[in-house]
Amino acid sequence: MTDHLAIEAKDLRKHFGKTEALRGLDLAVPAGTVCGLLGPNGAGKTTAVRVLATLAAPDRGSAKVAGFDVVREPDQVRRSIGLAGQHAAVDEGITGRDNLRLFGRLHHLGARRARQRADELLERFDLTEAADRLVRTYSGGMRRRLDLMASLVTRPPVLFLDEPTTGLDPRSRQEIWSSVRELAASGTTVLLTTQYLDEADRLADAVAVVNHGVVIAHGPPERLKAAVGTVIEVTLAEAGQLAPAAALLARLTGGEPVTGPDGRTVTVPARGGPPVELLRLVRELDAAGVTASDVALRLPSLDDVFLALTADTTLGRAA
């Protein structure tokens, strides 16, 4: 890791009509690292990538990628980056090998060099056996890998991956993760936008949590999780007891309870002494007539971090 910044954004702002997509976004990504850009739909992640990749001009603020200004030096930025968007941008009517050769020629590589680079990438990403099949016969994971390979034809020092595993099955997600790890190990700087917080937890050296067009926290995943502390999780015997259980958790911890999608689980950060809080919680649940099938302490996930950050701006500033 190095102190040199491959990506640097200061006070980025971008409007689309009356919609303020970016509201003063700041970001710093050291060269040779993976940064996860996290947030829900509409948080501003894709807009930030489009500005950094010179596909959209900021209304205010400044940004540099690979040392080049995205407004004043867009051509130099484009020569320094690779971009794989949310949907694979490959031609399904030709083979995987021909797709890579085509991208090579579009990037002004000679015919011989384009062939060589295609062969290198196919071998590196373990797609040689399928190289001469039409892309329309590829699985979703294979298409995404091919799209990733196409973005690397020119060996860019900076790679933007915009939700690369959306819609993929678990096996295909693992294949993409393996490819990203290999790129990071070779020194490529990767900015990864994702809605899957476990993805960022596995891949990223640092994460930037984006909400409403600004970065509300930025740091290594473990540091952000440490800021949340231990999480209390209560699983109820009956979904109808969710409200009193959540009220008890809020009163005892001072945190904002979050209910799980099953309607029977409530979690909240344990800010004080967790063992004492847990014992007291068990007693008070029993006194209130709330039947819990399980009460546990666990380490926080990045999902817990995001939920805590959006409910607690103090944590966002501390991180």
UniProtKB/TrEMBL annotation:
<protein>
    <submittedName>
        <fullName>Daunorubicin resistance protein DrrA family ABC transporter ATP-binding protein</fullName>
    </submittedName>
</protein>
<dbReference type="InterPro" id="IPR005894">
    <property type="entry name" value="DrrA"/>
</dbReference>
<keyword id="KW-0472">Membrane</keyword>
<keyword id="KW-1278">Translocase</keyword>
<dbReference type="InterPro" id="IPR027417">
    <property type="entry name" value="P-loop_NTPase"/>
</dbReference>
<keyword id="KW-0046">Antibiotic resistance</keyword>
<dbReference type="InterPro" id="IPR003593">
    <property type="entry name" value="AAA+_ATPase"/>
</dbReference>
<dbReference type="InterPro" id="IPR050763">
    <property type="entry name" value="ABC_transporter_ATP-binding"/>
</dbReference>
<comment type="similarity">
    <text>Belongs to the ABC transporter superfamily. Drug exporter-1 (DrugE1) (TC 3.A.1.105) family.</text>
</comment>
<keyword id="KW-1003">Cell membrane</keyword>
<keyword id="KW-0547">Nucleotide-binding</keyword>
<dbReference type="Pfam" id="PF00005">
    <property type="entry name" value="ABC_tran"/>
</dbReference>
<keyword id="KW-0067">ATP-binding</keyword>
<dbReference type="GO" id="GO:0005524">
    <property type="term" value="F:ATP binding"/>
</dbReference>
<keyword id="KW-0813">Transport</keyword>
<dbReference type="InterPro" id="IPR003439">
    <property type="entry name" value="ABC_transporter-like_ATP-bd"/>
</dbReference>
<feature type="domain" description="ABC transporter">
    <location>
        <begin position="7"/>
        <end position="237"/>
    </location>
</feature>
